[in-house]
Amino acid sequence: MKNTSDHTENSGNHDQHSQKSTSRETENTYWELLKKKRIQKKITLEDLSLKTKINVRYFEAIERGDFSALPETYIRLFLKSYAQELDLDFEEILSHTPESIQKKPKVPVATTQGHENTKPLRIRSRRKRNPLLLLSGVIIIAAAVIVFEYYQNTSEDPTNTPLTDTLAQTTLRSDAEAIQVSNDMENLDPDDETILTQPYTIEILPEENLIYLLQVNNERSRENLIQKNINHSITLNSPFKLKIFQPDKCRIMINKQILPVETNKPVVVQVNESGKLTLFGSTQ
């Protein structure tokens, strides 16, 4: 009898293992099917990267079903961009991901502790109202309206929008490719001899989600993501190289000087040890 029970238990474990293996194979087949659909539409990963400004390696990870290679904060964003460009159902794709990705993060609700037994404070209303209180209320409301209109008017100008230094929070990879000036690039303003003084303040005002590379001194470059309409500020005290992949979708300023960039092809901004500013890009 003991041997029969052991055999039954082993059979059950084998069936469970077979079901798990079948589930994994099904998921792998699903992501391979997505890849086949993309190929059928004659869309390359480079096309997706160019349109969405998302690195090719992240789309490769999606088509492998390898979500550990994706930055946790942007997994849903990358999947949604993938679905939109291929005209696929985002919710259907999301249903094949782990539950931790399908569930949206819940925002914690602040609660007050230690005051359950506190009785509400009763305020007796007075029949006679103080005219000074009414006047104060009118003044406060008028001031609020003026402040609201001021911020509404200033928000239309992107240069007045507060800058956010989010370099630490937006770094996607710290081992990104080194920034090189390619053969098809040339000095966009060879007659300009702009010399900057430290600290170097870089301001990027984006119209769309953008990815850029930043290399300080001889360190390895870092890949960073800027979200749409979130102005970006970086302060440096060392020579650097900055590569913007879609400069026509943003405004770039260094020490309050606007860089004259109109091309939609990548540009490289370089500041050397002497503080000399050089802008490289394609003129074609």
Description:
37% of the residues lie in helices and 18% in strands. The longest helix has 39 residues, at 2-40. It folds into 2 domains: 2-102, Orthogonal Bundle (434 Repressor (Amino-terminal Domain)), CATH 1.10.260.40; 167-281, no CATH class. It has helices spanning 2-40, 45-52, 56-64, 75-85, 90-94, 99-102, 131-154, 167-170; strands spanning 171-173, 186-187, 200-206, 210-216, 222-226, 232-236, 240-244, 250-254, 257-258, 267-271, 277-281. The chain starts with a helix and ends with a strand. It is of the alpha+beta class. The chain has a 7-stranded antiparallel sheet with strand order 1-5-4-7-10-11-2. The protein has a 4-stranded antiparallel sheet with strand order 6-3-8-9, with no helix packed on it.
Task: Choose one word for the global shape.
Answer: flat
User: What strand line-up does the widest sheet have?
Assistant: 1-5-4-7-10-11-2
N-C termini distance: 83 Å
Radius of gyration, taken over Cα atoms and rounded to an integer in Å? 28 Å
Q: How many helix segments?
A: 8
In helices, the fraction of residues equals: 25-40%
Judged by helices, strands and strand pairing, the structural class is alpha+beta
The major β-sheet equals: 7 strands, antiparallel
Say what oligomer this is.
single chain
Rounded mean pLDDT is 76
Number of strands: 11
Number of domains: 2
How big a fraction of the residues is strand? 15-25%
| Unreliable parts | 106-116, 154-169
Order of helices and strands: HHHHHHHHEEEEEEEEEEE
